[in-house]
Amino acid sequence: MPVGLFRVCLLVITAIVNHPLLFPKENGTVPENTEEIIQKMKEREESLRLEQLRLEREIADQEATQKALEKAAVVVEESKEQKVRWDMWTALSMVIFLLIELWRQDFQEGNWQDTGGEEDDMAVLGKAFKGVAFPDKAVLASFYEKRILGTTADMARMREMVEGFADDLLEALRSVCNRDADMEVEDCMGVGSMYENWRVRKPFVCDLIVPFAPPEPYCFCCQTWCSGDSFPPDEQGYGTIKVCRAGEDATGCICDKTKLGEDMLCLLHSQVSSTRPSSEMEDLLCFKNTQYLDADQVMKWFQIAVTKAWNRISHKYEFDLSFSLLDSPGALKIKFKSGKSIAFNLTPVVQYENSDVYFISHFPRSSLAADIPSSTHWFLTFAVYERRFIQLVSKTLPANACHVSCLQILSFLHGKQCSLTGPSGLTNYHLKTVLLHLLQARPSQDWAPDKLEARLQDMLKFLEKCLHEKKLYHFFIGNGKIPAELGFPIIFQRAEPLNLFRPFVLRRDIYRKMVDTFHEMLRNMSALINEYTVHIPLAHANGIRKEAL
């Protein structure tokens, strides 16, 4: 009871103490502070609203950034897919392009030299043939009988005489050379127009090539432009010859693998060696401080050797022998006491592996290798295979075929024109190349004797086309249709075709001269032929033609 009363009293006291009327002064400012508090609350509310807007903007910016990143990722992904698709299309396009290019090359190799039938040939005729009076069959038959056959009858006797003397001269050359140190000379071979029976212009000159090899224990390591080594475009058709020891890698140095004698000198390191080169090493005829065979050194050695050989056997003959041309080191001339003379070329060559392709040091009377890069670059000649191909094809042609007659007539006309207007870049080798392509392209029956006029026109049309396109491809290089009977090296068949007119592409003056000479020859053709033609009745002319061929 007392506790309860105490609690009631305490509650009453507390209520009285906390009543607002008991503290009038302290609570008198409440109404004044309310407006200030409300103002602060509004300011606070405004600041919170601004903060909220800022946060919303930041959130919106972040969302936009996120969307942009996601969009960029999608674009990157799409670009990757597009790139993959583009790469696939690019690769597919390249494959299609390569297939088209391969097909074009195969088509070109098989058909570019094909002039088709006689009706198709008329479409090939260019402006140069318009207005040209072409000789008929009777005139051509009379011209061939009078001018060609009349001047080539004694070629066989001349070839026999030159070959016999050359064999005797080379035998004497072997006797004056040191068999242990000098180059080993093999038997000579006849090549070119005299041995293919189409040379018509005098003086008749026999071209003989003489293979040679180094003394033991050395050998020649040959490298061509198509053997995988890097050769610039202007060196196509050339190769180099490295002198190595037997069994040595062509890329190595013999001094690294073999202990040289005290009197021996490494060809590559002669400048740093204290020993002097021996005469045996000098006889290897390499370019200074290299192992590469020097064509100029070879020709100097060959001239000296030929001079010594002639001095040994000169008492056996009743004529004199001399070098006839300074720019052709192998050009020789036999002078008889009667005043007559016989010229022939004896040119040293190096055999390419086990084939009948040869590296030739100099081309006599030819512009084929006029701009040799250096004396260590040797031009490759396919003359032996050219002669064999003509012989092989001749066996399949009709009797008295007109293929040789076409080349003889065209060679005569070209020579006559050059004597009137001066020499040009066009050579007899270009004319022979045209014939080789036509022999491969046309069927055998097209070369019958009565087709002489048509085939001669074919050669002129084909030559005009090549001059217009500035493209006359080497017959053997890049030609995959060479008969297997020839045994021609496959490496040259698989090589890129070699354009014989490529040197004239950049030399416009020579090209212009060559084209002008061709056009002048066409215009003067009838006059040149009629000059040497006896006009006879047509029937009798045909009879002469058959007998002559």
UniProtKB/TrEMBL annotation:
The record's subcellular locations are:
Cell membrane; Nucleus outer membrane
Name the domain of life: Eukaryota
Asked if the record carries the keyword Membrane, the reply is yes
Q: Cellular component GO terms, alphabetically? A: nuclear outer membrane; plasma membrane
**Its membrane topology:** Single-pass type I membrane protein
For the keyword Coiled coil, the answer is yes
Molecular function GO labels: protein kinase inhibitor activity
Q: Which UniProt keywords apply?
A: Cell membrane, Coiled coil, Glycoprotein, Membrane, Nucleus, Signal, Transmembrane, Transmembrane helix
Q: InterPro entries in the record, alphabetically?
A: ITPRIP-like (IPR026250), Mab-21_HhH/H2TH-like (IPR046906), MAB21L/cGLR (IPR024810)
Gene3D superfamilies from the UniProt entry: 1.10.1410.40, 3.30.460.90
Task: Show where the Mab-21-like HhH/H2TH-like domain sits.
Answer: 404-478
The signal peptide, as residue positions, is 1-20
The coiled-coil regions, if any, are 38-72
Question: What role does it play?
Answer: Enhances Ca(2+)-mediated inhibition of inositol 1,4,5-triphosphate receptor (ITPR) Ca(2+) release.
PANTHER family, alphabetized? CELL FATE DETERMINING PROTEIN MAB21-RELATED, INOSITOL 1,4,5-TRISPHOSPHATE RECEPTOR-INTERACTING PROTEIN
Indicate the family of this protein: Belongs to the ITPRIP family.
Q: Which protein is depicted?
A: Inositol 1,4,5-trisphosphate receptor-interacting protein
Upper lineage is: Eukaryota, Metazoa, Chordata, Craniata, Vertebrata
